[in-house]
Amino acid sequence: MTEFDYKSALAKVPELPGVYRYFDDEGTVIYVGKAKNLKNRVSSYFAKSNQHDRKTKRLVSQIRNLEFTIAHTEFDALLLENTLIKQFQPKFNILLRDDKMYPFICITNEAFPKIITIRRVDKKLGTFFGPFANQKAMYAILEMFNQLYSFRTCNLNLNEKNIQDRKFKVCLEYHIGNCKGPCEGLQTENDYIKEIDQAKNILKGNMSLPKQYFEERMLEAASKLAFEEAQEFKEKLTYLVNFQSKSTVVNPNIKDVDVFSIVSDENAFYFNFMKVLNGFITQTQSLEVKKKLDETDEDVLTMMVWEMREKYESEAKEVITNIPLSVDLKGVENTIPQIGDKKKLLDMSLKNVLYFKKEKADRQASEESAGDTKMRILLTLKNDLQLKAIPRHIECFDNSNIQGTNPVSAMVCFKNGLPSKKDYRHFTPKTVEGPNDFATMHEVVTRRYTRLLEEEADLPDLIIIDGGKGQLSASADALKNLGLYGKIPIIGIAKRLEEIYFPEDSIPLYIDKKSESLKLIQRLRDEAHRFGITKHRDKRSKNFIISQLESIDGIGKHTAEKLLKHFGTVSNIYKATTEELETLLGKAKALKLKEQLKVINDQ
């Protein structure tokens, strides 16, 4: 396989905005990217390659050729990148595609147009509105049209000649009042088109013109003393107003705006899009996109904004986002509101995307748990404790001491319902003197999570404290000092009645004694106790052995610790040869120790 001479290729790359394409040994485009400075961006793939993640290293290993296209601006580069990704669908690019074919509402191009739902867009068929990710909302609009207007549902060819030749007869829809009989010429095409225009305005989010239309018809009928007709228009106007009041009204002063929010984890990006027209939300969609390389949230959000605005044919001049876009979109203002109604809109979008992300994780966990007992138990624990996320990573703390001597604290870690013994930790209190469980718990929790924060390591999904309200309160205070309180759920378990306590809540939770989730909590508590007691006994035994060795003439505490560290046990020290002792202590002290050990052994 021919190696890629990237140095020669880089020499030709300019320091200008544009789009670059990587090819594999078969000449297939495997990645398309944009850059403000092509040379800097392309160079970054080949310089300091040891700092790349696994996926990027895999991409670089497959590059055999490079092409680039210069663009006038970064915005032009964005458009070209978007086009090329759609054209080549490179395997290392994320594709902002939704596998679902969402339905559209179509107003057909024909005499006396029909309003239909369809999933495939064919502009020759008619004018399309959508797509509708929320089908419930789409059917609510169609139902409103049925209440307000009398659109035909038949497939007859209602051209002028066919109607004049009286080729058709009215059907049941006419007799029950759902159609005004255009097939027999009982409704003119001009009157029919006026109603179609009202429907188009509603679909565009403009309710004011349909409301004005019904008001005028109502007043016109009333002036002619046609009170039944006036009442009919009044009822339709009331129906339209009621429908609008049920829509998510934002603020009449906020005209047309698109709202986007993005969150991500190690595996995927999650988006929410809301389209606001004339003061109320007309479209909303959430979707997930799997990560491919080390894409930034800003770059992916920018691609997503362009893609969704194109998909929903948005002409809004303002885009609200939770993070800034990586490229300025021509003619579009990007804002990140901090207060006011626009901030409420953004908060609503963020709430939707976080719920969508949680729902995805729960669904995946539920699918995994179908044949996985451990995952089922974790889901039960999540529900019993009303946690926001599945507690895949749990840490439990316990204090061990006997009458204040040789105090030690233990932390055990369970991942995916199983002990992760490499993550177990012991703590010897450094700032606490005497038997003080509350202060000790505060210290060890502080030390544990200060260390994780400094190392930027993963934090647990749940912390369990072996103890009642006092130990739990001390631990919660430690988390508050670290800025982690409220970010990591923490509970305490009291031994007597197996009560579960939450911070700042005096009423405990009693989980069913037979519950699998309580048994998991108990297992964590018992494991922390066992791990702590084992260390406590080892520590107490070590102190006793050191005390024994110190009783030998000429052996101080330092020498005793040195001997124990080297030989492990007193028995091994007894068995050691004079030469082994000499190596550690020197000849004089070794001979003296050997003699005294022989005397003790002979007694």
TrEMBL record:
Gene Ontology biological-process entries: nucleotide-excision repair; SOS response
Domain of life, per lineage: Bacteria
GO molecular function terms listed in the Swiss-Prot or TrEMBL record: DNA binding; excinuclease ABC activity
Pfam families membership: GIY-YIG, HHH_5, UvrC_RNaseH, UvrC_RNaseH_dom
Recorded GO CC terms: cytoplasm; excinuclease repair complex
This protein's UniProt keywords: Cytoplasm, DNA damage, DNA excision, DNA repair, Excision nuclease, SOS response
GIY-YIG domain location: 15-94
SUPFAM superfamilies (UniProt xref): C-terminal UvrC-binding domain of UvrB, GIY-YIG endonuclease, RuvA domain 2-like
Primary location: cytoplasm
Domain named UvrC family homology region profile: residues: 340-479
Matches recorded under InterPro entries: GIY-YIG_endonuc, GIY-YIG_endonuc_sf, GIY-YIG_UvrC_Cho, RuvA_2-like, UVR_dom_sf, UvrABC_protein_C, UvrC, UvrC_RNase_H_dom
Cell compartments where the protein resides: Cytoplasm
Subunit structure: Interacts with UvrB in an incision complex.
Function: The UvrABC repair system catalyzes the recognition and processing of DNA lesions. UvrC both incises the 5' and 3' sides of the lesion. The N-terminal half is responsible for the 3' incision and the C-terminal half is responsible for the 5' incision.
Protein family according to the UniProt entry: Belongs to the UvrC family.
Name this polypeptide is given: UvrABC system protein C
